[in-house]
Design a protein that fits this description.
Radius of gyration: 20 Å
Distance between the termini: 34 Å
Number of helices: 5
Strand content: 25-35%
Shape: elongated
Order of helices and strands: EHEHEEEEHEEEHEHE
Largest sheet: 3 strands, parallel
Length: 163
């Protein structure tokens, strides 16, 4: 399995943020990140916040709530950044049995642009015009999974740890 540079950066940032949140110095701890997938290459930062939460759980010896899934990039200050493919990820979350899907702030609703074409014939020539109409997709309603927006790692943590 090969991790691209952006994924490696995301893992380093996840470790950094987790150390700060858990208040644990990991300089004498070997943290090994294993991602199980059918892919041969992992790229992107979409799992950054999930990696951060998993690292905090390990450092604090906490049990994760497996009914919750999250996506988002992680920034060094603990804020959660936007990602693509929210609708697809929500469907995969629902199919995996999750009941709650956490997304970055502002991404609980998706705007899709649907092409609409109108054509007019003038003599021998047909002129067509394509307009893109905005279509609002409420991910929670469309997919059937509870979707909540979170903006920081602290916001997200409240949904993950089992007492």
């Amino acid at each position: 399995l090969l991790f691209w540079v952006d994924t490696q950066y995301s893992i380093r940032t996840a470790k950094f943020v987790a150390e700060n949140i858990a208040n644990v110095n990991t300089s004498n701890i070997d943290l090994i990140y294993t991602i199980e997938t059918n892919a041969s290459v992992i790229e992107g930062q979409s799992a950054g916040v999930a990696l951060t939460i998993a690292t905090i759980a390990v450092l604090q010896n906490k049990i994760l709530n497996t009914d919750v899934i999250i996506t988002g990039t992680i920034n060094p200050d603990g804020s959660i950044g936007p990602v693509g493919g929210i609708l697809t990820k929500a469907i995969a979350s629902k199919e995996s049995g999750a009941t709650l899907f956490l997304v970055p702030e502002g991404q609980g609703v998706q705007i899709n642009y649907k092409p609409e074409q109108t054509c007019q014939k003038r003599g021998q020539i047909t002129f067509c015009k394509t307009e893109y109409k905005a279509e609002r997709v409420d991910i929670s309603k469309d997919v059937g999974i509870d979707v909540k927006e979170v903006s920081t790692i602290s916001d997200a943590l409240q949904y993950f740890f089992i007492s």
